[in-house]
Structure prediction request, 641 residues.
Amino acid sequence: MMTALAFFESQRLVHLSFIDLAIIVFYFVLVLTIGFYLKERANTGEDFFMAGREMTAWVAGLAFLSANLGSLELMGWAGAAYQYGILAAHWYWIGAIPAMLFLALVMMPFYYISKTHSVPGYLQLRFGESSRALSSISFAFMTVLMSGINMYSMALVLKIVLGWNINVSIWISSLTVAIYVSLGGLRSAIFNEVLQFVLIWSGALLIPILGLVEAGGWNGLRARVATNASAEYTHLWSTLGNFRDNPMGIHWTGIVFGLGAVISMGYWTTDFLVVQRVLSAKDLRAAKMAPIIGAGFKMLVPFIVILPGLLALAVLPFKLVGETQAIATGAHSYNEVLPLMLARYCGPGLLGLGITALIAGFMSGMAGNVSAFTTVWTYDIYRAFIRKNASDQHYVSMGRWCTIVGVLISVGTAYLVMNFKSIMDYVQALFSFFIAPLFATVLLGMLWKRATAAGGFWGLLTGTVSSIGMWAWVKADPSALRYVALSPYARDMAENMYRALWSCLLCALVTIVVSLLTKPKPDSELKGLVYGATEIPSESYVSVWHRPWFWASVVAVLFVALQIIFW
Amino acid sequence: MKAGGSISIWFFVGLSLLVNGILILGAGIFDLVHPPEAQVVLYNLHAGIWWGGLMTVVGAIYCFYFLPGKARKQ
Prediction:
């Protein structure tokens, strides 16, 4: 006990009791127990990398969402809600729900019927080795970098919130993830993600409930926010007519076309980190239902992320500031919203549960990155280009070692970021360079039989290079923002939206032009890969209540209702 | 979804809720009997007791329903 307490330092946001520590320790014991227990079920490649393709829709759906629900996401967007108001909810609603439903109903049949083990694997089947090489190497590189950045950010948060030593936090959390993923593979990662999903909700749900009680309900909250900040902070769409009318400096076209139509579509439909969870489903109907279940819960996430940010605006007796100002003045930063609200309402036990929810969020994100990296490295790089004809057991062994190596590289990245913090900005940008054009490539590959291997490769390459070019142009000459983001008043987020939109459109254009100039594959080679050459299994054998399109319609109606309610 | 051939993921979820619920409920009752000097906002609602109690009940139901070895098709 004293050893554990020795990790604490004097400067910290909250103080944990013995009960709180017991809850945190129990969490670590439980996730490791699951990893050891599942080791016996991870002996073949299909088991280790694809969880045996036997997950139910609920398990795959919750893991699909949980892999994205990292604590950086929770704390970052809670801080964004404090800073920008309810506009931050766009990243959970229009920035996720349409894309998740599109994945379920339009794209999942091709991913699932093609029996691919990864998104780069689909590109290989559809466009050949060059497209796979480009996407798999970029993805593997970015994934471990992102994992390292998440790890560093988690350790930093634990240091600020709890006063824990940053090295201890990095090593304990990363070794825990390395152990349970290397033992049980994707199945272990998915099982823990479901557990982490429940912990995140049970730990974070009390804040909005108690916050609304204190603020006097939704109307009381709106009145307080209008007094403390501005009435515009509680409007979702009505302030998006002009770049200067809202705190985010963004126009509705950027939100709808940049975020809704490109960035979110790219992330939710082609980022293998999340798609891998759905590919583990036991059949096509479960694979289609999983993103729909995920979308249903995703719509509720603003309740535990955005609402606490707004509540902080309403009830905290002091103002939060940006990170730089916080360091200079000793004030609290926007990113501390969730821990501050936890400390405000949660006594012993509940506080431990809340902190466990944050740690669980970090670990689910890290495990997601590591398991996706392991699959892409083993199947799309190692087996494709280094050792083609080894035994299944050899690839499983490679997967286990790759998990450990991936975690170690992530730890190395975490320390690199610690010394060169500006890397975080560049890696976030680098990640976005690839996702938007990839969406155009995969979508055209699935829906247009005429798309050729050369078209897919050159489109993807051009889209990626153009995105990097636009980013470098604005860095070198900030006045170029008026061309890239259509307004000199646009801010960083708006620039990201428009850059993604242009790179996606350029990728599509080049893919189409090059495809029309090159020879297409015959229909017989496109079976199971493209619309028009693939027989989609009928769902007439199940009742309406069990059909994916029915539940997708329910989610879509609720999504539209939320936009109108918070207009 | 079964793990290792016999234990469901939902059993692990129930176990987590049950153990955490018992710990939170116990801490909440202790706080009620011995009110702390520094109290959280809305202390009078005793959130630890009803939230811990709710988690305990839900966790117990899940543990019972998905108990390893129980013949139940999912």
Notes: The two ends of chain B are 7 Å apart (CA to CA).
